[in-house]
Specification:
The complex is a heterodimer of chains A (394) and B (212). Chain A has one domain. Chain A is 64% helix and 1% strand. Chain A is built from 14 helices and two strands, in the order H-H-H-H-H-H-H-H-H-E-E-H-H-H-H-H. Chain A starts with a helix and ends in a 17-residue tail after the last helix. Chain B is of the alpha+beta class and 212 residues long. Helices cover 41% and strands 14% of the residues of chain B. Chain B has eight helices and eight strands; from the N terminus they run αβαββββαβαβαβααα. The longest helix of chain B is centred in the C-terminal third of the chain and has 32 residues. The C terminus of chain B is likely disordered. The chains are: A mainly alpha (394), B alpha+beta (212). The interface between A and B is medium-sized, with 21 and 20 residues.
Chain lengths: 394, 212
Amino acid sequence: MTRAVAVDQMFVTLNHALVAYVPAVWRPLASAVLGVVTVMVVFLTLFALTVLLERKGLGRMQNRYGPNRVGPWGILQPVADGIKAIIKEDVVPQSADHAVHFLAPVLIVVAAFLNYAVIPVGRGMALTDLNAGVLFFFAISSMVELGVFMAGWASRSKYSLFGAMRAIAQMISYEVPMLLAATATVMVAGTLSTTRIVEMQATYTGQIPHWFVLTPWGFTGFCLFMVAATAESNRSPFDLPEGESEIVAGYFIEYSGFKFALFFIGEYLGMMATSAMAITLFLGGWSAPLACLQWFPTWGWFFVKLVALLCGFIWMRGTLPRLRMDQLMNFSWKFLLPMTLVNLVATGLWRFLPVGWERWLICGALVVVPYALLGRSINWQGRKVAVRRYRYAE
Amino acid sequence: MLGRGIVEGMLETARNFLGSYVSRERLTTVQYPEERLAHIENARSFPFLVYDGADWQAGMRCVSCQICEKECPPKCIYIEKSVDKKPDAVGRPQNYPKVFNIDVSVCMSCQICVEVCPFDAIKMDVEYELGAHDRFGGLLLDKQRLSKSNEYYHRIHPTEAAAVDAALAEERAKMQAKQQAAAAAAAAKAAAPVAATPSAAIPSAPATEGKA
């Protein structure tokens, strides 16, 4: 067990050992810089890995090979992509607002990286243990919207502006259910600190962990959160802001070279950050899925869960076609939002009902019944399809 | 219930994902430089000149009548007619192209030159890997690069080449019969040289044929 703990804490120990070389006054700063650099390196590597996984996985889902030319089995494809992005010409439209045009991708990437400050990657491995960590996360992740609109506006292109407006409409619409889904966990945990939330879930009854996803409200909350997170990170099937078939590339159409790559990085980092938040809030953060599996390092469990969720994102992208704008809005305001509100009621009941099967039954019914009813109300397959009439065109 | 279609779709993509690792038939991609599909018989890329026998210069079917040059819509064929006449395989003196160039970067593979050629001298090739570093030298194919043997033609378009060979053999037989008749007539007359033979040979046309 002691060896397991040593492996588990090896990065913390290493950090302490390295920081000890620095004069005492500079130690907090050195520790912070070390942590930030590590997070940047680790998550950029994971970004490269995700891109490769996505391209290979999507290829296989469409019965293609995917990239297989650069390096053995194409594993060096992200490196080639990176080199290509760096050496490409960086074209800025003449009438663009140059300063804002430059700042937009930077802002998006910075906002995406700031999210990781409050994610507990392992036991005692959060960069900062804010007591309002969840709040910080959502505040920072809404900065991405600003970056997106800056990009769309500064490009001086109608496609850009369309894309940006779509993106803003979508991200604001889906931020509400995302926040409300996260609120359920905060209500039960009674804290906004991500570290505390994970610690509460890292206890076991027998072999079963106390993950919030293993409760009716937690499961509902997790699903709603993930759907909203997909829309929030502009991923398929909610990739209307990008919409390459109708507005070519949306808000980053006027970007080329490394700035384009920054948008790409920002999108993936945002996706990983929201996945990490979902893990923290519902999937027990770094805790092992069974009590007997606790010998595996906690940071290992975190990344296993993260990659699993990313694979889920890729799988979804390979399956679903893009929504229409009205479907997107209907889905958010007529389905997700009521469901999150109902889920909040279920969470409250769960908190105050006595422990037992009645609690499961009541809370379960409280989320399943509205799900079925709301699902029927937005089910457009059941509607009659009529020939569209144009009143004035004939 | 809402979500059933999504689950079904996810199962379908999962089946594709796993299936692509199990059965090779799912992966329709041809890994081009390493493997390639056999070309279909009617495939065509750019024209080439057919020659009979072993020597490409002696056996060249082209008599430089320049019909293809005149008919070519993008004007990618350039022919210089020879002033002298080389004896073809039959032994009759015929013109031959001193220069025959096709700029394949201009050629649009319309096959009109093939259709107008009365001598079956120009046919469509299937070669498509013609990449070159020099657009002017590398893609301007000269007489030597354009010349390909009748065996090669048989290899790439067997049915068409067999039909061409049969037609040529028939015409050659007709020609020989006519020559024999003319020779017999000449022997019978035994006096005046027959002037009819060359003028009779031109419309029937296969005088440029090699014997082989």
